[in-house]
Amino acid sequence: MAAASSRKRKGKIRWSKLYSFAACFRPLTSEERPAARELIGRPGFSRVVFCNEPHLHKRKPYKYPYNYISTTKYNVLTFLPRALFEQFRRVANFYFLLAAIFSLFSLAPFSRASLIAPLVFVVGISMLKEAVEDWHRFLQDLDVNNRTVKTHISNGVFVDKLWKELRVGDVVKVNKGEYFPSDLLLLSSSYEDGVCYVETMNLDGETNLKIKRCLEASLCLNEDEEFSKFKATVHCEDPNPNLYTFVGNIEFEKESYPLSPSQLLLRDSKLRNTDYIYGVVIFSGHDTKAVRNSTRSPSKRSWIERKMDHIIYILFSMLVLVSLVSSFGSLLYLRQDMVDWWYLQLPDDNKVNDLDDSNSEKYDDRFFNPSKPVQSAGLQFIRALILYGYLIPISLYVSIEVVKVLQTMLINKDIELYDDVTCKSVQARTSNLNEELGQVEMILSDKTGTLTCNQMEFRKCSIAGLSYGGDITEVDLAASMRMNTDFEPFEFSIDETDGATRSFEPFDFSVSSFSAQNGNARLTQTEGPVIKGFNFRDDRLTNKNWIHGSNLFVITMFFRVMALCHTGIPLEDDNHKTDKLSYEAESPEEVSFLIASQEFGFQFCRRTQSLMVLKEFDPSSMKEVEREYKLLNLLEFSSSRKRMSVIVSNEDGQIFLLCKGADSIIFDRLADNGKAYEQATTMHLSSYAEDGLRTLAFAFRTIEAAEYESWNTIFTQAKATIGPEREELLEQASEMIEKDLILLGVVAVEDKLQKGVPECIDKLAQAGLKIWLLTGDKRETAINIGFACSLLRQDMKQFHLSLSRDAESNNQVKDMKEDILQQIESSYKMVCEERNKEAPFGLVIDGKALEIALRGDVKNEFLQLAVNCASVICCRVSPKQKALITRLVKQYTGKTTLAIGDGANDVGMIQEADIGVGISGMEGMQAVMASDLSLPQFRFLERLLIVHGHWCYQRISKMVLYFVYKNVAFGLTLFYYELYTSFSGEVLYDDWYMTMFNVMLTSLPVIALGVLEQDVSSDICLQFPALYQQGPRNVHFSWSRIIGWILNGVVSSLVIFLANIYILSPTAMRENGFVADIDSLGAITYTCIIWTVNCQIALITSHFTWIQHLSIWGSILLWYIFLLVYGALPPNFSGNAFQVLVEGIGSAPLYWMITVLVVVVSLLPYFIHIVIQRSYFPMDDHIIQEMEQCYKKYDVRDNEMWVREQRNSQRSTRIGFSARVDAKILSFNQQLQQKKLSIYRSVTNSPIYRSITASPFS
Amino acid sequence: MDTDRERHRARETAFYLFTQQSLPACKPVLTPGWVIAIFLFMGVIFIPVGLITLRASHCVVEIVDRYDIDCVPEPSRMDKVSYIQDDSIPKNCSHFMKVHKYMKAPIYIYYQLDNYYQNHRRYVKSRSDKQLLDGQKYHDTSSCQPVESNNNRPIVPCGLIAWSLFNDTFEFIREGAELKVNRKNIAWKSDRGHKFGKNVYPFNFQNGTLIGGGKLNPEIPLSDQEDLIVWMRTSALPSFRKLYGRIEEDLDVDDVVVVNLMNNYNTYSFGGKKKLVLSTSSWLGGKNDFLGHACVFVGCSSLTLAIIFMLLHVKYRRPYGDMSYLPWNRKSFSG
Running DSSP on this structure, what letter comes out for residue B195? Predict the structure, then answer.
């Protein structure tokens, strides 16, 4: 009961007072309002909403859509036409559709079924896939649409209503923690003054809470019953995607009030810290700003697939060419010779007259009509187009689709990509992009929720010039560890003087002590309960040990600043199990401070409007005392002030100003006697900053009562001012009091990275990927994270692009443009100058500058600079900007980009990038729903790209090339045979052989290749991330390769066809004198083809599991089985293939010898090629395969060379953890070198050394 | 029970390995040693095989005799077509063939036609397999166009192929005595047994205005008309041989065989050639050196390649697993 009442009380605090200072920074200034009023009613601002009267919106002209949203591509009616259209947009499919249509008119050289069946199969499977994917989307929509919200029906009664049934004009009540179902106009909230707190992470990625405030007029509507008679009319702008503007007015009780964005609650944002709000639906469903902001997810095709189209075009031109040759040949024969071939009984003009008319009509054959040779040739052309259709790999698409689905399945099943914590694994939502994963060159990453967990941890502090919380950083540790392993070579490389070696000893010692310390740290971390937000282990401060410290006053003040200088409030747990409180504050940073101060014994336990209560541990009495501090003023934090202060008076009436803020700001405002610890603190600051910790400096001053009084009048005056100068006056006032501070120390909080993020970034950097950080957060945070992720490092040259104050205040686009352009040019000049030195550059740019930099004429310069920097960090960017950057980078560089993010603010970027990756596991699903792949954790990106991406790229490119080869090799034999049949269109092979070719006899090995091929195993991929570069550099799918494979196919087909012709004709092929007829020749040639293409794939494969063996050799065996079975069928069915193997060719030794010879000869060119390539122009994977074999043989895998190569492969990296370690080692080495030199000099200068070197016996 | 469980577990592990893509695999790496071995092996295999093949081919004795021009009397040579189409002129003709090498029985008799497109699509399709098996019981002869019926009655066997049956005949006389020619079993057994009906007799055949090739004895069922069966196995190429019969006596060196032939078949209108071929056969069939030559060539090339690679390997040896070729060790690499 008591708890409930206290909560009620807390709810009634006038929060507006707390934030009074902040209010003046609201983006919309009052001058804009009159302008808005004029706009209402004009085009674009014509929307009328009758609040609480949704029934009025059922009829025109006020009929607006329901709150139903749909993200599906198709619906029941449009599925068939649209999906079919999508399918036949593919060139090859369209061609086969035409072929199938022609087959209906007896134009085709094959039976109808053999043309239509594969097409139906291929298209059917693809459409099925589309349908299943769309179904999943539908289910997700259903989930969202069926959420419920309390809606007013009548007489002040609120009932649950589904989101999708909500109408414009409905009054809804949203409770704490719920999402807003649509864009709402805020009417009132649980707070007296009608404010509410909104988390807009899904919209813009900003994690801090935003305040929304209702109109004064509607404040009274804060009970259910009030709504029975409520009526108002809203005139406002039409639906638009602009998140930060809203223009409108509301007519309520016969008066009109202007509305601003601060009354608008957007869909997909969340109510926080407020028990409930009442709102009226203004925009619903697809009219909401969030939905308008989202673009329809585009269907993405991978680069290889797009290039595949070009290959298809090439094959098409080949097809048209040979068809033309065929029809011309046919034309020539028909004009000259064919008439004389009496055995064909062609209708000859001269002879027809002799015959009776009935007969001559029957003789008419459209394909061979000497009286109409051109028409016949035209028909022959069409027939040839269909006949040589085997050049176009029809089953390529379906095989690729099957392979990709299987690949996706394997990726999803990968146990290494399974997250125990969230129990989720990787989900590839579209399987189109597997191979694209192997070609990524740029990663555009969101920060919050992707790299970081959106959780702050108190890590270190420096109080009174002493640093607490451990000194060792991971980088130091790794550097010293590695130097230890490299120790021996060092020893030999330097002079053999005793002194030099001795000089290593202290170093060696320090390394071991490092590791010992680290071990301890690890140990202590595991013991004791883990406190969220507090990761600080230092026995000097914890467990109230600080009371033994020397600077007790400073320490106490430090903790007081931490406990008092904030805007947070304690949350009261209903079950008081522990005396620990949890807190809620505007930023997670403040929460971590409050938790830390509680741990140190300064528990902030209550706040009233003018009072803050601390439970302090009093060192003198060793007891906890409750002390009250009067809150006199609060000078709010803002991005321009970069500091925050509270003025409090304690129980003794002493007035303190407690201030926390960015170090540079605080250091500028120190009193002369307050700089005692400045130097030591600065040192600590820089080391904290390099570890990527976010630092804040704490300072305080005591204020005399008189001084305070005089200042307070100025401040109150400033506060009371209305108008544009208010801001300035307030700033001046605060400036007056925030001076002469005494530095206490600094704190370092860690924006906690997700597990494995630095390691992952390190590996990705080694793989040659560029990582851009795009965040909505402020610059300092972004830079800190840049350091924490090793995207930035201390010795890196950083360029900061931002608008100068002047340019910003003038608001002149031209000035701003010039300003930015100048900055870009000067930076770029520097990059050009220092390019040779291999010095890495980092670029930091903020949203406003970016907006200018991305405009048409500056864009190219900016991108040129950005691409040349090792890492790029964009802060304070809007979702639209994220998408824009992604698109521009994609266009400008032409490289494959991957965007990864977790919130709805990343949706644009995710959809725009070549591959969009969503982080699942967090609450919002928007990013995942828009993504092509979802990961539970950022760190999985490493394995996904470096292992699976690399594999898939290799597999798909090998597979496509092989497909091209296979179909060229087979299709061309058909053409060659035409040369021998006077281009009459006769086919060498039985219809069924041909149908079987792509469907059964050659499909399984290529699918096995596509699913299971590995050039090197997964752990070696991870050890040599540089192998990944094969993808971006596209070694496996270059035009030379494609042409090479086509040529290989041409050679194979020539060898196969000519050898068979010359060996089998015209003499007998068997001992009993039988000669090879058309069927025997067909079967023998076909056998050679099956053997050749299947052996070819065996040559490509470098990883044989039993599945590959089974599919390759099984396919060949299957051909013989097929031939046996087909030949055993009654001749009515099998036709000329009847008994062809058993009686015809099987018993002829010649048949088997031909097979062997032809297979060997047709594979010889490729074999010689790979032999030469492997021996003299080896590729990375070849060498690594060899290395792997070597090491496996001798079992010395972890030997020196292996490690060295591994390290060499990382050498060119400029960002990432390893690069930092390398830089550190470099600096260590330089120090060592200097030390060594000095020792060497001292030794060589010593007389003893001289005497030794002078002696000939040394 | 235990074995069941073990088997189950084994299956589970296998599936796990499959999903983790870590099935045991053999990863052959092409080393110089392997390359040289493979080429050597190919050389060692193909050269002997080629030589054996060549030997087999050389054992075959083959006599080819073109008779289409010689068998037209001098006066008609200007207009061979009208000669061959004129039924009133007797077409018999004699030819001499000299045996240059001992020929061991069976000696196969082939007739060879050149520039004759038996593989023309219109020609190949013009037949009805069902009719050949069922005779007049099978009515649909539309596939036989343009020779499917005459006087509104179906033709058996219908179609262009049957209609254009080769009808030159040959008789062989050695030293005054007729050589016995066995004309049985010259067609595939499966054709005789399963594709040409035992109770199907030629009907309405060659009764039309346009007479193509040979006539058939309507008394003999199709399954026994082996000439037709052989003819109807259409050849793959425009130059082809077909089996006519077998001489089952040996022929000695310098034997002179007199061939009495009936030169009925018209190849003159399209400039085709007719040849008579006597040939023995080996285990590889007829006389054809191509396979042997190809094998020897491949074998020799393989040996040469083996030697070239061996020399290259000795001279420009790239150490196995040489790290200096890795991109990050290459100087030109710009990362």
Answer: I
Tally C-beta pairs within 8 A across A and B: 285
Cβ of residue A11 closer than 8 Å to a chain B Cβ? no
Q: Between chains, do A1153 and B49 touch, taking CB under 8 Å as contact?
A: yes
- State the Cα–Cα distance between residues A37 and A47, nearest whole angstrom: 14
Interchain contact B86–A (C-beta under 8 A): no
- Kindly provide the residue ranges of all beta strands, DSSP E only, lying in A636-738, ordered along the sequence: 643-649, 655-661, 694-703
Q: Write the DSSP symbol of residue A587.
A: S
**Sheet strands (E) in A766-914:** 770-774, 797-801, 841-846, 871-875, 896-901
Q: Exposed, middle or buried: residue B186 (CB in 10 Å: 0-12, 13-18, 19+)?
A: buried
| Pairing assessment for the beta strands A264-265 and A183-189 based on DSSP bridges | antiparallel
For residue A1208, what pLDDT is reported? 62
Distance of CA A100 to the CA centre of its chain: 42
The answer to whether the CB atoms of B321 and A1190 lie below 8 A apart is yes
A:768-827 residues touching chain B, CB 8 A cutoff: 768
Q: In what order do the strands lie in the sheet with A264-265?
A: A157-162, A148-154, A171-175, A276-283, A183-189, A264-265
CB proximity under 8 Å: B 53-72 to A: 53, 62
Question: Is there a contact between A1078 and B235 if contact means CB atoms under 8 Å apart?
Answer: yes
Lookup result for tokens 């400096």: A697
The pLDDT value recorded for residue A339 is 81
Mean pLDDT of A227-237: 86
CB contacts of A1216 in chain B (<8 Å) are none
User: Which residues are CB-neighbours of A781 under 8 A, at least 6 positions away?
Assistant: A447, A694, A751, A775, A875
- Contact of A66 with A285, CB cutoff 8 Å: yes
Name the token pair of A54.
Answer: 């949704």
Match 């960017």 to its residue by tokens: A877
Which residue of chain B is at minimal alpha-carbon distance from A406? Answer: B19
Least confident of A339-348, A367-376, A1189-1198: A1189-1198
- Chain B stretch 31-50, residues whose beta carbon is closer than 8 A to a beta carbon of chain A: 31-32, 35, 42, 46, 49
Q: With an 8 Å Cβ cutoff, is A1068 touching chain B?
A: yes
pLDDT tens column, A1033-1046: 889 999 999 999 99
Cβ under 8 Å to B: A residues 63-122: 109
CA distance A1129 to A1138: 7
Residue that wins the pLDDT comparison between A852 and A180: A180
Strand A452-463 with A742-753, pairing: antiparallel
Reported ipTM: the value is: 0.95
Query: β-pairing, A47-51 with A232-236?
Result: antiparallel
Which CA distances in Å does A1203 have to A1189, A1196, A1198, A1199, B165?
16, 11, 7, 7, 79
Closest CB from A986, A1161, A1205 relative to B323: A1205
Contacts of A1075 in chain B (CB under 8 A): 110, 235, 240-243, 286
CB-CB under 8 Å, B129 with A1208: no
CB contact under 8 A, A1105 and B305: no
Rounded-to-integer distance, Cα A1131 and Cα B25, Å: 44
Backbone angles phi, psi at A194, to 5 degrees: 70, 25
Give the residue from A386, A387, A990, A1067 with the most B CB atoms within 10 Å of its CB, the best one to mutate: A1067
Residue A1112 burial by CB count (10 A; 0-12/13-18/19+): exposed, middle or buried?
A: buried
Q: Are A899 and A915 in contact (CB under 8 A)?
A: yes
CA distance A885 to A863: 9
* CA nearest neighbour of A672 among A721, A740, A607: A740
